[in-house]
Amino acid sequence: QKNPIFLYYMDDENKTLEKKKLYDAFQLEQPLIDQQISEIEMEAMLPYLKHQLVKKQQDQRRQVMSIFDYGKPRMTYFLLAVNVFIFLYIEWVGDSTSVETLIQYGAKFNPAIMDGEWWRIATSMFLHIGFLHLFMNMFALYYLGTAVEKLYGTWRFTWTYLLSGLFGGMASFMLNPHVAAGASGAIFGLFGALLFFGVQHKQLFFRTMGWNLIFIVIINISFGLLVPQIDNGAHIGGMIGGFFATAVVRMPKQRDRSKQLIAFVIYLLLISGMAVTGYMGLFNDEEGLSEVQETQELNQSGDYDEVIEITSKALEEPGKYEAALLFNRSFAYLQKDETSAAKKDLLRVLELSPEMAEAHYNLALLYQQVGEEEKAADHAERAADINPDQNDFKELFDNLR
């Protein structure tokens, strides 16, 4: 019940207790009624008492409104414009869904970060993968950003947004091997800012947004856990980062130097710990996956020399993606007519992954090209057996037998 009605019975027996409850409820500092006056005099004072109570309620309402209307959402609108502009620029010069384009323009790409490109943690929060990704994040930024900036003011909001994005990006670096981009870490940091407000103003928080906000946070995190493509590490990391970033600047007119310093130290320790942990790969055993994704894109765009360079470097410590890296390199070698190198890679792929139909098919094409028809037919038949629904495999086998 959001607006309960309370009754105070001023009978002779309970007058003192009920008056105290009344004063406490409305935070009245001094009694408005002399306990010794008559009932007639008390009735005469009722308009005055009513006026005082109404005035107190109006003052409390103005105080609440001043909390929620402290600032104006100027930076929110600026960030919306910046994100949309960058998205349109990326679409103009390339493709926002292309891994190659995303990496080129600053997406979170773990191998590059480990080579010293730490700036990607910051730039990735301004890139988006396709229109739907942009729309969902900008929709959330508009509503959350407006609320948080009005609550905290522009500079506190900007601080929280940027530090949340950095924290979420570092959490993604530590936990997620995939190429990643988006403002979601920073946006979840705004949830963290609202949760910090709840810690500071519990009654007001639960009287206004409390349970609705908590429900939305739970739904978003649960959805992220159920859908593998969602970078939940960035989401949860951003929310934690937003909480501590807000604790550093605190609510307007609520300074507490010691608590602010403690929050800042905790933030630095956590983000530094994630950087070290991510670099060591303690929670991320997917080494080589990013290079597989990137070189697939590069093969499609015809950058075969770059494919060979990237895969050769990655194959120095290939991990569990050795077969995929070798396959991508063999494709580049085939396109450059370096059949000997391509054959060596494909044979190694089939040692590691005998059931890779695509490797059998490419090896069949290679043997056909060099005139070894019998070997070509064997591998074409194997490819067709593994994947009978692929017409190209069956047609090649029919032509060779």
UniProtKB/TrEMBL annotation:
It is found in: Membrane. The keyword Mitochondrion does not apply. One of its GO terms (biological process) is proteolysis. Keywords: Hydrolase, Membrane, Protease, Repeat, TPR repeat, Transmembrane, Transmembrane helix. The keyword rRNA-binding does not apply. Belongs to the peptidase S54 family. It is a multi-pass membrane protein. It comes from Halobacillus trueperi. It comes from the Bacteria. Residues 116-250 form the Peptidase S54 rhomboid domain. GO terms for cellular component: membrane. One of its GO terms (molecular function) is serine-type endopeptidase activity. Signal peptide: none annotated. Pfam families: Rhomboid, TPR_2, TPR_8. SMART domains: TPR. Its main location: membrane. TPR repeats lie at residues 323-356, 357-390. The chain crosses the membrane at residues 75-92, 125-145, 157-175, 181-199, 211-227, 233-249, 261-282. This is Rhomboid family intramembrane serine protease. PROSITE patterns: TPR (PS50005), TPR_REGION (PS50293).
